[in-house]
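Page 42, continued from yesterday. The earlier attempt failed because a stray header line got pasted into the input along with the sequence. Redoing it now with the clean sequence only.
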Amino acid sequence: MASLNGMKDDLPEELASTVDELTTTLEAVEDPDTSPQDRQGVIDSARQLTTALTTITDDGTPDELREQLTTLVKQTSSTLQISQDPQVPPEEQSLVIVVVKRSTSAVKKICDPETPQEQRDQQIPTMRNLYHALRAGRGEPQVGARALEGSTGLATAARSATPQELSGELTETAYRQSKSLRKFTDSKSSPEDRARAEKDMGDQGARMGEEQKDAAPTQDAQEASLAQEATVCTNAIFESVPQHRLAKRLKSIVPDNWDTEGVKDFWKAKEKKEKEDEFLDVLAQLRNDEHVHAPVEIAQLISELAELVPNDRLFATLGTPASQCEQTASDLDEGYDVEVGNWLVEAGGE
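This time it went through. Structure tokens are written below.
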């Protein structure tokens, strides 16, 4: 927050109110009522936007890129404000934050002079399309799910570990999907237009899933422990799946008092090494804002989580962490004789 305020003097005057807006959003999520995951998502988004602001102030930045980034920062900040609107349901607020967080992870690549212009020309409108859809399609579950897919594809394409050729393919697919999503949420679209856009979103989403699978790091199963794999997988699902679905699915494997009070936020999972690789420490925030944690057996946890994200949407929803979900499922099958739902179809080759 201090760094944002410190940049105001060097930024164009038209961005002064936007910086104030971002600062206000950052201050708002410091409220104890804000879930830890939402708070961190806003902080990460603001941090990623500082890269755009720094590029805007650089004298060597081309005027066209400076104008594009200025508009993008404004739109991103405006979209983040949805997460602070008391009239917006909490889970929709959280979804907005996740989409913005994943989308803004592409800012560094957009600002990188080594990024091909063709790719940059798709990244920026993809973000705009996703933000437009979030504002226009409030409350429609399919819109949120597709926006999450698009932002996940954009984030994977922007990873430094993603090969440039694959990055370009993913960027283009995310762009095409976002265009269809925008058409789907456009109030001027006819029923026929929406139907075509819906079909195309599904096709592009499936394609993004396959491309992200190709982008996932390959590693020897011996390089990571079961707990390490399960931690990456669990945290990705905690971020991606609505809290009410998580709470309902995990009801039988968390302490009874969590269910009695109600879980506001399944925040994260951590390795619990003293439990010999078979347990994770699950951290949550209850509805009374109490922060709690408890050990949960990995086999039980992963088995329940596999029911929330089917294999054919795993990579499109989670991105590259999905590979750790499949590997965890395979390890549980081979080492513990535990079948983990549909994840094992691809992971174990059965």
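Notes: DSSP finds 17 helices and three strands in the chain.
Reminder to self: strip header lines before submitting.
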